[in-house]
């Protein structure tokens, strides 16, 4: 970790994209004291007195660069999969998953992603790693996490033995088959300190496995306890019922009809489509674990989802950004977080500025910091990144962490030159199951 010390951090001379959707402004000067932005001055403001650095101040000359809020990825899995480590025997235990997650999480931050929302993982590993980051024990982005996803028999995370009905202890989901089950598990996870509850309906959305009253029971219990609720809902019925139940955001919505989307719009619920994982699968080979039949099914589902999200956007439904990084096909943490932006521009018709706003100020809500991060402005928490190229001219810049001139999280300049202790991106996941 690199600290700014006791002085100020001054960024000057770059072009500012502030995260609000406003036009970029040249010759920006940003002053950070502690973990807050205390001043933002641009060429369009009234003349300002020169700011002479004082002893202890650190200055970043961003000339030729583009300054913006740190990226926020709203769908990242940390503990769900662990990679092969040569010579290390694998056992699926909380201890192993925690060590793995603690070792790779800085890769996400080094890619310019200063905040992530984690919709499910093993045991309470993600909450433990979040606490270690917040306590300064390890380095990583801001983490806003669920525990295990709440799923019924037939749900996407159902690992139950058909003879016993019992699921595996190391599953990313926990079985809930009545409203009482859902309430009990929500209370248990809140007691452990999760930030949100994740509900998981069926794999493809062709059947609805979670009833509206069960979704509503979770929402009521979680909201009374100050937690958010998200749902994996690819199907028509689960998308509509989730909106009516008042979830905070919906993942996917592939098969949503016009009537479903009208309901989502009326209820004011955002959708996070999460295209990246499936888009990667469509280009993978049999040797990489995806046969042609699976690829064709995913491609058809993806095309259906593109169309649904175009219709959602036309209705004014807020579109959020998540990548499913850390899942099977998008396994490598730090590699795929910017890919969703290109897909949203190419397939959904969003402008690059709309994409940047979705990655920043819109996505602030999915890490529980709406109005505190996602915008470069006076009083905001100082999560700032600087690129050496213009992401508005080429949205694929977001996929090129090597083009980052600086990453600042909570007012600290992150030392990205040291990779000691971080696993290589080439390490492979232990399991390859698309979600």
Automatic annotation (TrEMBL):
InterPro entries associated with the record: Amidohydro-rel (IPR006680), Metal-dep_hydrolase_composite (IPR011059), Metal_Hydrolase (IPR032466), Metallo-dep_Hydrolase (IPR051781), OTAase-like (IPR057744)
Transmembrane segments: none
Amidohydrolase-related domain segment(s): 66-413
Cited PANTHER family: ALPHA-D-RIBOSE 1-METHYLPHOSPHONATE 5-TRIPHOSPHATE DIPHOSPHATASE
Protein name, per record: Amidohydrolase family protein
Organism: Tistrella arctica
């Amino acid at each position: 970790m690199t600290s700014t010390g006791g002085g100020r951090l001054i960024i000057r001379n770059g072009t500012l994209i502030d995260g609000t959707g406003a036009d970029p402004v040249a010759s920006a000067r940003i002053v950070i004291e502690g973990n807050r932005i205390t001043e933002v001055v641009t060429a369009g403001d009234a003349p300002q007195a020169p700011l002479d650095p004082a002893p202890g101040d650190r200055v970043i000359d961003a000339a030729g660069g583009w300054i913006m809020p740190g990226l926020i990825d709203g769908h990242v899995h940390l503990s769900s999969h662990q990679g092969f480590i040569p010579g290390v025997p694998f056992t699926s235990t909380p201890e192993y998953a925690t060590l793995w997650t603690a070792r790779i999480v800085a890769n996400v931050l080094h890619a310019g992603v200063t905040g992530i929302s984690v919709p499910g993982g093993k045991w309470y590993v993600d909450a433990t790693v979040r606490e270690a980051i917040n306590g300064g024990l390890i380095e990583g982005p801001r983490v806003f996490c669920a525990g295990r996803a709440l799923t019924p028999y037939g749900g996407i995370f159902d690992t139950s033995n058909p003879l016993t009905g019992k699921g595996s202890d190391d599953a990313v989901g926990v079985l809930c088959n009545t409203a009482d089950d859902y309430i009990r598990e929500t209370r248990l996870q809140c007691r452990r300190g999760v930030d949100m509850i994740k509900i998981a309906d069926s794999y493809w959305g062709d059947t609805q496995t979670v009833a509206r009253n069960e979704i509503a029971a979770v929402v009521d219990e979680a909201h009374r306890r100050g937690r958010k609720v998200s749902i994996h809902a690819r199907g028509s019925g689960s998308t509509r019922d989730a909106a009516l139940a008042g979830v905070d955001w919906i993942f996917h919505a592939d098969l949503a009809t016009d009537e479903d989307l009208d309901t989502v719009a009326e209820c004011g619920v955002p959708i996070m489509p999460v295209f990246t994982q499936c888009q990667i699968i469509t280009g993978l080979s049999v040797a990489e674990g995806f046969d042609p039949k699976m690829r064709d099914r995913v491609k058809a589902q993806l095309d259906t989802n593109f169309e649904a999200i175009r219709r959602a956007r036309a209705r004014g439904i807020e579109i959020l950004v998540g990548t499913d990084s850390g899942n099977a096909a998008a396994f490598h943490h730090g590699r795929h977080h910017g890919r969703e932006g290109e897909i949203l521009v190419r397939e959904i018709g969003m402008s690059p500025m709309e994409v940047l706003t979705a990655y920043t100020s819109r996505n602030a809500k999915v890490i529980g910091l709406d109005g505190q991060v996602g915008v470069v402005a006076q009083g905001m928490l100082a999560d700032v990144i600087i690129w050496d190229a213009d992401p508005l001219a080429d949205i694929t810049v977001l996929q090129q962490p090597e083009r980052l001139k600086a990453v600042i999280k909570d007012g600290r300049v992150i030392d990205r030159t040291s990779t000691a202790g971080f696993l290589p991106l080439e390490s492979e996941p232990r399991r390859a199951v698309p979600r």
